[in-house]
Amino acid sequence: MAPLELASSTARLSRRGFLAASAAFCGTCAAARAAESSTPNPPPEPIIDIHQHTHYHGRTDLQMLAHQRAMGITTTILLPAGRTTLGTATHGGRSNGLAANCTGNDAVMAYALAQPGEFLFGANEVTDLPEAKSEIEKYLKLGAKIIAEQKFNVQCDSPESERLYTLAADYGAPILLHFQEGTYNSGFKRLPAVFEKFRKTNFIMHAQTTWANIDANYDWKSHYPTGPVAKGGLTSQYLADHPNCFADMSAGSGLNSLLRDEDHTRWFLEKHQDKILYGSDCADTLGRGPGCQGAGTIAAIRKYAANKSVERKILYENSKKLFRL
Ligand SMILES: [Zn+2]
Ligand SMILES: [Zn+2]
Asked: How would you class 285 by CB atoms within 10 Å of its CB: exposed for 0-12, middle for 13-18, buried for 19 or more?
């Protein structure tokens, strides 16, 4: 139909017909808007989230996808759990699925490969299983970008852990460790020797013991300490002294560390601007609002970064470089 014909047929519409046609048109608009919101809007500024999980506390894949898009994430690295075991490394089975019902290598890889460009995948296994190295290596060969999330009840310098540090170096893939003293990857104070022994391995520190230790006066009691922070805690020392040591800002512990002392946060982000990576590790379904810690962490980084360059490094550039994206 030529434009003139369309115009004349529109002109012939009665007022009632016009309203009905408008309503139908608006309905189409609403559907289009819904479809639009479920596809990635090209955000003005890309953000890489290096720490997310599938089936996190039972969240569906669709909810996870909507969560990441609502937060404005352009690239997500999905971190699988190890297999189901009943040994001490998983506290007799209580910490299977990363203690959060998360799924393992096959499910994570399949999901990421079905969303090319938007999702990448890690490789993982229970640290002290005899087949841990071969299982992880299988997925590294298939394109896994990181060994993670290592969240098992082992010493951080155990022979089994060290075997994986060597594997990480062999494949140029960082290894991400959940540090929670006494529960997962214990021995935080001994890390300098690990960083020195495995200089070709890039380590990413994460979780409670990491973020409580921004404070030089940390008393090793609370997992989520509050109040003023004394500069120069172990985490700050490790980031400053070891080129192969990084930290991801994820989870409640990361956000807590950003919010407890604003002056320290501004100093910390600037000082370690080349070593901090954005991760959400966020399990809600909305991806926005007060219940979304991941969105809160992005907001805090934007608020306290000394300038745009520092903000972009933490939200994007550092991960792009480290993961060669
Ligand atoms: Zn996690
Ligand atoms: Zn969230």
From this structure: middle
Q: Specify the CATH number for the domain of residue 308.
A: 3.20.20.140
- Could you tell me if residue 195 is inside a domain? yes
Residue 204 host element (H or E): strand 203-206
pLDDT beyond 90 at 29: no
Strands 48-52 and 75-78: parallel
Amino acid present at 55: H
- Ligand 2 centroid distance, CA of 290 (Å): 9
* Cα 281 to averaged position of ligand 1 atoms, centre (Å): 5
Let me know if residue 6 belongs to a domain: no
Task: For residue 294, give the ligand nearest its CA.
Answer: 2
Q: Ligand 1 (ion): which residues have CB within 5 A? A: 149, 281
Q: How far is the CA of 185 from the centre of ligand 1 (A)?
A: 14
Q: With 0.85 as the threshold, say if the pTM is over it.
A: yes
Q: How far apart are the C-alpha atoms of 202 and 174, rounded to whole Å? A: 5
User: What is the CA(91)–ligand 1 centre distance, in A?
Assistant: 17
DSSP assignment, residue 40? -
101-137: pLDDT as tens digits? 999 999 999 999 999 999 999 999 999 999 999 999 9
* Domain contains 202: yes
How many angstroms separate the CA atoms of 27 and 209, rounded?
Answer: 52
Q: Is residue 305 part of a domain?
A: yes
CA of 171 to the centre of ligand 2 (A): 31
